[in-house]
User: Fold these one by one.
Assistant:
Number 1:
Amino acid sequence: DFLVVGGGPAGMQASIEAGQRGADIIIIDDKDRLGGQLLKQTHTFFSDVKYAAGKRGFKLGEQMIAELSELPNVKVLTETSAVGYYPKEDVMLMKRPGNATLKVRAKKYLVSTGAYEKTLVFENNDIPGVYGAGGVQTLLNVFGVKPGNRGILLGTGNVALMVAYHLIQAGIEVAGVYAPSFSRVRGYFVHAAKIQRFGVPIVTRHTIVKALGKNEVKGAVITRLNPDYSPAEGSQFTVDCDFICIGVGLNPAYDLVQLFNPKMVNNGTLGGMVPIRDKTFRFAPNAYIAGDCGSIEEATTAMLEGGLAGLYVTEALGRGDEGVTAKIEEYTHALEEDRGSPFSTRLKAAIEEITVENIEEVLN
């Protein structure tokens, strides 16, 4: 009935909602376990207590995996990558361990493949010791591996700030957090305050020019920026460090989405290239989208979108009832509340811009 590509919070919640209502489901993920971003999130979530607030990401992931394990109609395939979708044949091609291939034809598809990290262009940005913030999170919180002994972070969004705190918790020195943004720290004040209490400087209007070292990071050259974002002459200085962590945002992972021949738009507020979709999260006649691959937001938002997508698929499969309708209303209200902050005004407007009443009218 339903093939879910991506086993993060969105994909798992969609599978739970549709699976609890009897749909025959396969959920796949390219990692060795389900969970996605939740696996490496050790911080306590905010949002609605009913969904995620007060829970740590990895604990929430464990809870969702346990719920899925109780559904005999949901088949989980880990270490499985979706490498192609063929619209004429309506077939998803997947690669399994041992170079095995698998072809699946489903009535409905959900793409919940998340996002990948943006990076910065600077000299020597490819030497060992230059990481993405998510990579450092994975090393620390999933595998218990130190990325180095003294590092810097680039970016002041929530991910960069939280990774800085995770590093401090692991006993690793954070020499500073630098970002090219001019006006303010982009992440939540609570995250910035936690690392500042440990004496870590957060410096806006600065960026990296060069990573020092040949086969490993030996330091970083930082510069102050002029109002036009050009390097300020004579402002460069060196920071001693053995790793550099880049946390400047995410791009929606839209590779698989494009194979369904949707109408794509570039929306900077939502993270980059995303498909037009309707109010049921459909972006193609038989395909739905949820989570960061549709708009870069928080894990709780991904869960709510995934739950809604799973419920709308349930209706489309002819399994809807009053309970499904009530659950859709509940999730919709929770999603509106989750995006109720004044900081979400531009985000909500951007989502409205790419949401239509009927996806067929756009595609035709």
Number 2:
Amino acid sequence: GELDIIMVPISFTEQSVFLSFCMVMVLVMNIYSIAKEVVQISQQRWNYFRDYSNQCDWTSAIFSLLFIIPLMLNAEGSLHWQAGAMAILNSWIGFLLYLQRFEGVGIYVVMFVEIMKTLVRIVMLFLYLMLAFSLAFHALMLNHKEFNTMPLSVIQTFVMMVGELNYQNNFLDAFLNYQLPFGILTYVIFVMFVLLMPILLVNLMIGLAVGDIAEVQRNASLKRIAMQIDLHTALEDKLPYWFMKRVDKPSITIYPNRKCSRHFLKQLISGEEEKDDVWSRLQSKSQTCSFIQVELTKQKSRMKEMSNILEKQHGLLKLIIQKMEITSEADEYDGPVNVRGSMWPSLSQAKARGSSTSRWVPLIKAIESKRK
């Protein structure tokens, strides 16, 4: 199914000066990139292999050399052209990964990487379901070129999974023209495929991938800040001490009300309105205080429960007092407010009332005798 390609080589000296200069620059920059990666391996050791952007850099440099060296030597064949295509793909992907350390657009790159990881895990889990339908269609639709071989059947089933069913050409026309050997069974499996794959599985993948977007965004912002710290720490370790001592600043002064040209350029490029720098810093810090907010909410609910319990106990004490026919001194005394007189009246005042003797009198006597 492939087309034969005949590559016509052009001599390095016969082509334009601009193309020759670009080819030399590609060769030099890729050799420099490989040397840089080797130095990073000697400095970072095993931590170097944990960063997937380094693998992308190696792939781009190797494929670029496999493309540019045969092209400069006028080699025959088309394999180096395919290596060039892979080099272009990996170079732009690596450029996208480098953008995740920047403040403006880096959070979206990190979010994209996190969602892609979730999507890959889901696809790997449900790969068996796709293989099941691919094998079934390959066995039942014998006269169709889309399902003629096993790889073509898998690719066609994958395309059908994202919504490109092509029902009329693949199923309806073949069934009406009596070209479908197992028509009823094929339609039963096709209906099961439509219910399980495009409707159920694709919506499940979308829901799991982008459902919890707020949590992904919060984690992405923290991860971007961590990547910036790692980058700055690595750069500080590589630079000499005398240079770091010269450029290091023990303190920095921020003038939030002072206008600067960079704010205008940022507003012009991003299209967003200018925001207060201090307020934006406070908002970014407030996102990391979720644990404190949860604890404060818990304490607030506990205080509410305690106040409710106290109110219930207060009502219960009132009922006990009424049941025992105990009259409080606040109910008996109807005069000006006097804290000591209303709460703890003297013994002479208790005797003067004579008409209604309270049951609190023995307690008051005991307290006054203790004071004396």
Number 3:
Amino acid sequence: MELESQNTTTTENPYQLARLFVDRGDLRAGVKRLESSMAQALKAGQVKDYFQQLPIALRIYAELMRFDRITEIQEFLQDQIIKGEMDPSPRVYHSLGMCSVFEHKFERGLEYFEKGLSIALKVDSKIDICQAILGIAIVYYRLGRYEAALKEVYNLRVFFQVIDDTDLKMSAKILNGKILNATGRPDEGLEILWDAYKDLKENKSFYSYISLLFAIGESYKGQGDNNMARVYFELVLRSIDPNEFVRLHRIIEEALVDLGSTNSEDYDLVYNKDAHTVTERKKGRVDFKSQFILMDLLKLFLRNPGQVFSKEALVREVWKQEYDPATHDNKVYVTIKRLRRLIEPDYDRPKYIFRSKNGYYLNKSTKVLVQ
């Protein structure tokens, strides 16, 4: 009877059911249920429940490389604040910070996390303080400010003495190990990561498990032990579904290439950073003939598969100019057309560069290798 009661409760709670899917690695099924649960929470005015679930949904969107959804959520939150329909709470700023980080807008993300921290300190909300500090540490890490990142991680340890959040603790330990590895201290990083491995008995999340294994592999690589690094990278690669863990699958494949473990012939587009060359699976090596704008445009797409770039964004990122419709509309159109002629095996039926109502993007199913 006890088991039956427990199952009924789980089934009736969309959030708990979503977490079950996510924790076992079924991200698409999990986020579908999260979206339903979050919509119900907003409709019922349960803002706290909504923001409990939103960070999980954002991480899944990032893993699925659904950057369009991240942008939509960011715009929704900003719109709600402007209209006065949502108070700028620590969790609102934390969510906006996450959106910015996933979009690689780290300085903006830092601003959001710092605003959230300021409010959380005033109301003495320790869990919100910890989330903001972790966000700040992640931004510092991504910006290469490793000592500042370590300082924030160490600040978290003080709060972990009085709060018990297994997800936060696991994330902090994995980040700590990655920072130590990045600063040339992989031995210390491995100690932290193996300590985190013991905590997996309490945190049974598959996502945490594979993130930890990958971080351990990176630390072995930092030690110069490429064989052990390869073991852990390949273990993660065999454990995940590439349709569920799209981002991580790409990252690990690239890491294996660095170790000399992957055949470049398995990829649609291969970019060699040192030689500045591009190879397409069917066409072979593509000759850009010093057409640097085309190369810069392709590199932008290769670094961000699936991400839609508006004309304004393309002009800013590629031409380094402010967008002017009279000057740039036709220029963007013609440049995209020229790029397609270079890399598409069939120009009339493009498989790489697609257009949406908001801009252009590289087909996220394209297998990309950056050497």
